[in-house]
Every structure is written in C-alpha cells, then in structure tokens.
TrEMBL record:
Domain Cysteine-rich: 5-86, 150-237
Name of the protein in question: Succinate dehydrogenase / fumarate reductase cytochrome b subunit
Molecular function as annotated in GO: oxidoreductase activity
Organism, scientific name: Desulfurobacterium atlanticum
Keywords: Oxidoreductase
Gene3D superfamilies: 1.20.1050.140, 3.40.50.11810
Amino acid sequence: MKKFAFYPGCAPKGASIESYISAKAVMNKLEIDYTEPLSFSCCGAGNIEEVKPSVALGINVRNLAIAETEGRDIITICSTCYLELKKAQRRLEERETLKEEYNEILSEAGLRYEGKVNVYLLHHVILDYFTDTLKKKIKKPLTNIKVYPYYGCHSIRPKHITGYDDSENPSSLEKLIKLLGGIPVSGNRRILCCGFHASFSASRLAMTLTGQNLKEAHDMDADCVVTPCPLCHLNMDANQRKALKTIGEKFIMPVLHIQQLIGLAMGLSPEEIGLDKNVVPALYIV
C-alpha cells in the first residue's frame, strides 16, 4: 500500500480550517497511511515566485525532498500548493544541472531530491487507490443530491504540469460525486477562475467571477457546489453574499470542500467534517 506525506498548505490550517479537519477525518476513515511532517513550509502560493523565483523554487524543492526522504508521496488539499509543487518538479526534470544546484543547498539540511516523489490532490488519491475502500464505507449515499463540481484553475491548468484531468473537460470530481451516489451537474464555468488571486488588486472583478460561477450552479438547480480548492472555497463561501450582491443576485448556495462531501457520504457527523464552520449554511443538505 502506498504511503503519503500530508501537505495541507496554509489556508487549510487557518482561514479554511474546516478543510483540514475534514481531510484528516476522511483519510483516517479510509485508513490512508500518512504522516504530517512538521518541517513542511508554505509553498509561496505564486507570490514569492513573482518577486524571487529562485527562492520559490527552493522552498518547494525542499518540501518535495522532505517527503522523498520519508519514502512517501505527497497528498495536498490545496490546488495552489498542488500546482506550485508540480511546477517545481517539472523545472528540475527539465534541467538536471538545476537539480544539482538545489541539492547542493539542500545537503546543508541533510536533504536530497532525486525526483522519486509524486504529488496528488486528495481526491486523486481516493480515486486512484481507495475506490473500493470508499465504496465499502459509504453509509449515507447522496441520493438525489445535485452537486455542481467546481475545479477552478490550479487543479487542472496548465495541463502539461498538473496532468491528472483534461483541462478543458475534467471529470475526476464528477466520477467521485457519482461514486458517492450524487448527481453531478456540470456547467461551463466549472473550469473558469473564481478570481481569488486578484481579490486585492481587482476586487470587483474577483467578486463578479465568483458570483457568475455561483449563479451557474444555482441556475442548474444544484443543491450545493463542491471544490478541491480551499481558496476557491473562501471566495464562494465566505464571500458569497458580497459576490452575489456584485452581480445583482440573492440566493443561498452551500459550498463544500470535496472531502466534506465524501465525509457526509461515509456517515461522518457535520462536526467531524467541520461543516459547522462553513459560512453559508450547509447542514440542510445532510
């Protein structure tokens, strides 16, 4: 059985704590073999890369090396962390000399990166390695619940780096929703940006994008939205009222982390998956 190092990222340990709570609850229920190395650091979320690309790369090579030293692949629950780690892998694959430059630096901390570690989002791991286990543990199938799968950007683009889903027609969330007994309602905006990374520089644009994404889910009669990205979740959940006001709409749309949806189907309580910590009420879909 594969072993994993859990890399939650920053948002799930802070503003999206329910993401972290639900991920650990689901991994424990599925009996996934994982550790959570305390020496992992922030991935930089693309911000450090804009100022100091070499430092951003070094941060993520170090995180990869930590997991590789333990002989474990990485599970993350943040799409931005996923992309940053995958980008670091790609750069070192393309330039062997660059890998050796960073290994010389890593050697000072007793680390080395050989390129043997894989990086996954949690729902990728479940689909690839724990489908049968999940089927056996489903206690409350999501019968008749319409779920809008929202991918956002970083879990699917650019495809030559992320690699798991087709960036124009992804299907991993739909597969998982069906496995849980729900009904996926997939709209065109499920692969479009929510604007999170422009929230400060172009707030109105970010809220417009988020509002339009929510409206599509609402217009398709979805009972809830599900996403693998805690940053997209923040925009669609915590900022939902502001986003809808920006586009002149008013309704309530529960937004769940994908692991919260999995937890519900496995019979975990709302408290066990942090559903009580979501801003938009979601308990009524249970």
